[in-house]
Specification:
By secondary structure, the chain is α/β, with parallel strands linked by helices. The protein has two domains: 174 residues, Globins (Globin-like, Orthogonal Bundle); 112 residues, STAS domain (Transcription Regulator spoIIAA, 2-Layer Sandwich), CATH 3.30.750. It has 13 helices and five strands.
């Protein structure tokens, strides 16, 4: 099972942890003030934890957390441990690992970072009012010192939530690209590759990979690449298409490009792309007819 550090792409090295401690300016005087409110925080830890989750329960976007009982119970336990650790006086790698554990629980249910910020702000307000009510005249200073630890925690958890969201979005984009460039077998030895939408360099590379794998898997001899749904092509993408055609040829498959719009054709000419290597046909029907001819099929009207 991977460690918490391995479960996130963020790197929390010793130097990075120290850098984050400097950001919040956590000093020796702060540690003394935090130690003086340790018993108070331990005493009210359950109340503070309940305030945090009571706030989340009112937010529509936090419903997935409360819909998963197992994760919710883990989150409650981890939050209680978090509150106790905030006044431990040790904010090292073990402490960060505990923050990561909590952040990954939130990330698993897709808790929005903005929702977490609201709940965390409410938690700090609740803690602050309790400290100032029960600690006398210097209660504000004690809370400000503990608040630095809160901001230290906040930076870690929000960074993990944002990174987890970006990771999920990246996986979704990969899935969409794979679905949007399918190589379909029309008949024996014939593939059709319909391309729709924006064709950037990354998608063009994935298109090439998918096509070459499909040619090998289906022992294809002809591929009809239809770009009717492509609105624009830049020089990098155009060169990538030409390289795709050349790679397919090396694997024994001829590529017929169909559906070139007037705008794309003019762009290719203006870019100075060598079109002599492309076998182009006006539309998809003409491309399929040309493919049949190359494969030796004869279509007759009955």
């Amino acid at each position: 099972m991977p460690s918490l550090q391995e479960s996130t792409r963020l790197q929390f090295t010793e130097s990075e942890i120290e850098r984050r401690r400097r950001f919040v300016n956590l000093g020796a005087e702060d540690l003394e003030r935090i130690a003086s409110v340790k018993d108070l925080i331990v005493k009210h830890a359950n109340t503070f934890s309940a305030a945090f989750f009571d706030y989340l329960a009112k937010i529509e976007e936090a419903r997935p957390l409360f819909g998963n009982v197992a994760i919710l119970e883990q989150a409650r336990t981890a939050k209680h441990e978090h509150l106790l650790a905030m006044v431990s006086g040790r904010y090292d790698r073990a402490y960060v690992e505990q923050r990561l554990k909590l952040a990954m629980l939130y990330g698993r249910v897709g808790l929005d970072s903005r929702v977490f910020l609201g709940a965390f702000h409410n938690l700090l307000q609740t803690i602050g009012m309790t400290i100032m009510r029960e600690s006398g005249s210097d209660g504000a200073q004690k809370f400000f010192s503990l608040e630095k630890v809160g901001f230290f925690d906040l930076g870690i958890i929000v960074d993990v939530l944002i990174d987890e969201r970006e990771r999920v979005i990246g996986q979704q984009q990969i899935a969409i690209r794979e679905l949007s460039t399918p190589a379909l077998q029309i008949r024996d030895r014939l593939l059709i590759l319909p391309i729709i939408g924006v064709l950037d360099s990354q998608r063009a590379k994935q298109l090439t990979d998918n096509l070459l794998h499909a040619i090998r898997a289906n022992r294809a001899k002809v591929v009809v690449m239809d770009i009717t749904g492509v609105a624009a092509v830049d020089s990098k993408v155009a060169n990538h298409l030409i390289q795709t055609v050349a790679a397919a040829k090396l694997m024994g498959a001829a590529v017929i490009v169909t559906g070139l719009s007037a705008e794309v054709a003019q762009s290719l000419v203006a870019l100075g792309v060598d079109l002599s290597k492309l076998n182009t046909v006006g539309d998809l029907q003409g491309g399929l007819e040309e493919a049949d001819r190359l494969l030796g099929y004869v279509v007759q009207r009955t």
